[in-house]
Amino acid sequence: MTLTQGKLQEKLGDRPFRFYPKVGSTNDQAREWLINGAPIGACVVADQQTQGRGRMGRTWETPPNSAIALSVILNPPQEALSQVMMLGALAVAETLAALGAADVGIKWPNDVLLNGLKVCGVLAESEWHEQALRGVILGIGLNVRVNFSGSPLAYTATSIETELGHAVDRIDVLATLLGRIDAWSAQLGSGALYEAWRARLITLGDRVSVSYGIHTYEGMAVNVLADGALVIEDSNGTRHTIYAGDVSTQG
Ligand code: BT5
Fold it and tell me: How confident is the model over 42-88, as pLDDT tens digits?
């Protein structure tokens, strides 16, 4: 079903939102709105992004008519900043579970996998005014029926409809997702959010290689901390606490 302002309005009720059929990046629009006084909980939705981005300057693909590109404005307590990314991945995982998906997991730190393939990415960006936190933009890209055939992503990415084998309505999925985001936003900073995220994490117990810039760590993923850091133990028994990076699993 096509995303339109009217259909979103009907489903999102009182929530302040902005809809763009085509936009550079919803996170950029949300940031501008936040700077200009957006209320907390406001969201930006796009059907297509031409400059969608991932972490570390990478590209996020959002072709038309096939995905959800969402940015939600939150204002967590500063000490709970690191939980915003957890919140995004957890809310998506619960949304997929509510759709009946059985094999849903979170790959540290922010990928949601469906049947082992990446169906969603999460990008949280903070906005500061002088020393004060103005808010956080929680960006979520969720593939609903993206056609990856012939794309370099064909072996790593998937979509909800591909895995479930039936059509889903993007507006219904979006409404469920926003409901989960609202529910967990009220718990930012709590142990409950961390525990729920941790319970869905598939990375623990794996032998992994984590790369960040020029650094690579190899070892067993033995723990995750309440601030989201991954702890790996290398072959010498030394533990490394890692705050950002890309994980690949080694046999
Ligand atoms: C992420 O980055 O996974 C975070 C993606 C966040 C996107 C949302 S959409 C709404 C909001 N507005 C934005 O501009 N961004 C946010 P990262 O972990 O760096 O993964 C990026 C990598 O995932 C790319 O380098 C590709 O390999 C792969 N990728 C790109 N598009 C994909 C897609 N649609 N599905 C699965 N994988 C994809």
Answer: 999 999 999 999 999 999 999 999 999 999 999 999 999 999 999 99
pLDDT in tens, 191-220: 999 999 999 999 999 999 999 888 899 999
State the closest ligand 1 atom to the C-alpha of 246, by its place in the atom list counted from 1.
Answer: 18
- Indicate which residue's Cα is closest to atom 29 of ligand 1: 60
Going from the Cα of 211 to the center of ligand 1, the distance in angstroms, rounded, reads 17
Q: Which of 126, 111, 121, 4 is nearest to 73 (CA)?
A: 126
Ligand 1 binding site (Cβ under 6 Å of any ligand atom): 25-27, 49, 52-56, 58-61, 69-71, 110-111, 118, 121-123, 139-141, 143, 146, 153, 157
H/E stretch holding 83: helix 83-98
Radius of gyration of the chain measured on its C-alpha atoms: 18
Q: Output the pTM of the full model.
A: 0.97
Contact between residue 47 and residue 132 where contact means Cβ atoms under 8 Å apart = no
